[in-house]
Amino acid sequence: MLINQLSPTPNSKRTGKRLGRGIGSGLGKTSGKGGKGQTARSGKQTRVNFEGGQTPLTRRLPKHGFTNNFSKNYSCVNVGDFASFKAGTVVTAELLLEKGVLSKIEAYGLKVLGDGEVKIALTVRAAAFTKSAAAKITKAGGKAEVIKNIKDNK
Question: Would you say residue 154 has pLDDT above 60?
């Protein structure tokens, strides 16, 4: 078989629409483009939210708020949530995730807040503690250990 003998398989290629070939074809006069105007012209079409030249809705509405690029997102847990653990347990973010206390570990790790009471001695390893949380843990006979997070460049 030679290259000049190759042909497409039957019914695999469709012939293009013949536009502008008289009223009888059904695609005469405007060639399926409708009436006159911007959309009937060839070339670049308008963008999705184009409103015909008037100020778009997105520019008419006021701007509000901002995203703080320097915020540190912690997975927060209260001291009162440690009541279910046995004395001497080493509490970490992974353990809390496993027990279902946390739904996910945020980028900056675990932060322990001081709401609630703790009556058992626990070793709590977290990226950050509030003053009241650290005081309650040490008062109960435990230790509040600050672990360095990968995201912190201090």
Answer: no
